Amino acid sequence: KAGVTQTPRYLIKTRGQQVTLSCSPISGHRSVSWYQQTPGQGLQFLFEYFSETQRNKGNFPGRFSGRQFSNSRSEMNVSTLELGDSALYLCASSFVSDSGNTIYFGEGSWLTVV
Amino acid sequence: GESVGLHLPTLSVQEGDNSIINCAYSNSASDYFIWYKQESGKGPQFIIDIRSNMDKRQGQRVTVLLNKTVKHLSLQIAATQPGDSAVYFCAAGVQGGKLIFGQGTELSVKP
Question: Would an 8 Å CB–CB cutoff place A39 in contact with chain B?
Fold first, then answer.
């Protein structure tokens, strides 16, 4: 079974631009969540989608948005990029069962804002 | 508020020894906990999870212990190997798929 797939793996953007990152969850997983990882702040929750609906949202400005499609694939968008948005953006997918809520991460998208 | 903290930012052990990484959480509503291993340049790799109705769970060479009374969990790695060198994160699950992460412990294994 393929893991969580994120594209692109690396990208460089200029301040003020926008970026869209893509995530394909593990087959059968309907929950997709996004995290930002930086050396200073660690891993921080951005938002979670389940069946095309945003179920949870972290404490990030409105410039960060996301969506989920009917096939569970998800995208996140960051508009008006700032230097501080440089980070590793991680997507995770999960399958909820009676035995747990196992959450698996992709390899991430490295975003550099210059 | 919600927070997860690790007791030590770094841990150095000799190859073959057992490693113990500790973590504390604040939210009593957390109903599951996950340990992840992250190697440089890669995403977090799932190691083991435990639900709040359990106090111990074992995997291959790893054991997670959960003490809900003092809101503490630990990851024990038996016979630590050089390939275990990485940053380890504990995460507390709240509200469905949302995880609150600790800052991570960097484990170094000396040959």
Answer: no
* Contacts with A92 from chain B: Cβ below 8 Å: 97, 99
Q: Does A85 touch chain B (CB under 8 A)?
A: no
| pLDDT over 80 at A99, yes or no | no
pLDDT tens track for A17-70:
999 999 999 999 999 999 999 998 899 999 999 999 999 999 999 999 999 999
Question: Looking at beta carbons, which pairs linking A58-62 to residues 24 or more positions away fall under 8 Å?
Answer: A58/B98, A60/A36
Helix (H, G, I), strand (E, B) or coil at A67: strand
* B98/A31 CB distance under 8 A: no
| Percent of all residues in chain B with a pLDDT value above 90, rounded to a whole number | 76
Q: Please, what is the end-to-end C-alpha distance for chain B in angstroms?
A: 41
pLDDT at B99 over 80: yes
Closest CA in chain B for residue A31? B97
Report pLDDT for B64. 97
Task: Check CB contact of A105 with chain B, cutoff 8 Å.
Answer: yes
Q: Alpha-carbon distance A64 to A45, whole Å? A: 12
CA distance B97 to chain A (A): 7
Distance CA A45, CA A16 (A): 23
